[in-house]
Amino acid sequence: MQLRHQESGAASALFPSRAEREEIDDLLTRRLYDADKHLRKGSVTPTIDIEAFRRELAAFDFGQPADLEQSLSWTIAQLEQGIVHLTHPRYFGLFNPAPTFPAQCADRVAAVFNPQLATWTTSPVAVEIEAHVINAVLARLGFPEGASGHFTTGGSEANYTALVCALTRADPHFASDGARAFKGRPVFYVSRECHIAWIKIALQAASAVRQSG
Description:
Blueprint: H1 2-7, H2 18-40, H3 50-58, H4 68-82, H5 101-113, H6 124-140, H7 155-170, H8 174-177, H9 197-206
């Protein structure tokens, strides 16, 4: 029914016509380009009046649909003042690298197609691309043939994956029985300066139990 609605040329707030989409696409591209020019001349760190921002934010009560163009413009204006700008020429952080333009284009493509990567059946092309990139990285790093990997959302998930692999290597039954596979309580060591995410990682690993089918 939704497909027939779109094919008939009818438009809605969530699925506007092609002409409307192109207009918003062009507007968004221009606004983001202008925002990038503005932020490069300003502060690297946030300068926003947070109390004034919260008052404006509170006005969005979701009682009525908001105008898309106005919402986009407002959001971009707030982000110009309200975040650390990784794309600023005076930003030298290594933990959060600045996004490249090809990466921004890739995000846009991924958002439009929204591939479901849970199984090969639903998104064979996307899964094959992911596997190909991972294999290329493994080859660059000199990993042996047969090695594998996966993309993570960030450092916390990457560290948790590493800990799970270490626990599974220590006792293969961890994969099926969780922490109960060990006779005693597993212990891992981190420095006093470690990231707070390790607390969450430890709790997740310790609570891992066998899932009944």
